[in-house]
Amino acid sequence: DQQVKQNSPSLSVQEGRISILNCDYTNSMFDYFLWYKKYPAEGPTFLISISSIKDKNEDGRFTVFLNKSAKHLSLHIVPSQPGDSAVYFCAASAQGGSEKLVFGKGTKLTVNP
Amino acid sequence: KAGVTQTPRYLIKTRGQQVTLSCSPISGHRSVSWYQQTPGQGLQFLFEYFSETQRNKGNFPGRFSGRQFSNSRSEMNVSTLELGDSALYLCASSLVQGGHYEQYFGPGTRLTVT
Prior knowledge:
The complex is a heterodimer.
Chain A lengths: L3 E2 L4 E5 L4 E7 L4 E9 L6 E7 L4 E4 L2 E6 L4 E6 L8 E9 L7 E2 L3 E6 L1
Parallel strand pairs in A: 2-11
Antiparallel strand pairs in A: 1-3, 3-8, 4-5, 4-9, 6-7, 7-8, 9-10, 9-11
Chain B lengths: L4 E3 L2 E4 L5 E6 L6 E8 L3 E9 L2 E5 L6 E5 L5 E5 L8 E11 L2 E6 L3 E5 L1
Parallel strand pairs in B: 2-11
Antiparallel strand pairs in B: 1-3, 3-8, 4-5, 4-9, 5-6, 7-8, 9-10, 9-11
């Protein structure tokens, strides 16, 4: 039973445009969400996180939106750059700070010059 | 500040052997988590240690075990290796501050079981 789902295995966008990566979850106990970027042969790199008490968090070119009623979150990257090309993972945790993260299977983003 | 380090980076073992992987967290981080990444299952949580105690555990068989030392360094052990244990094993350390936390991952250990 996949509790965190990233339904798009891949996404391709043009440099300078917006990239929108989506993530859905089923466990209503999740209250903290994180996005990671991963290059091949490297560990995931933390990008941005959001607590369930918020519906938006912004950090530079990255913005995460959380819709609790729909159990949906999205990561917006504006403007997209070729260096953003990587696999993006959505992760969730429950119980307000548990270190056990449940990951989606990732979306491969390709930003074309 | 140095990041999370993992040793070795690559390892080849044969079925039935055992293996020990090591992780050094970011200085000051007391929580260390381990994850397994495979193409089919993605990133799956193995276990988490905090102050030398296992605090969380994922759904893996007892062949997978770990421990944490007083300096927060952690090791994970897999006994009686199976072909399906071939994966990238990732260690992450985390720090909780005011309800906000981030997990920082190491580069991983690529284990190949033949």
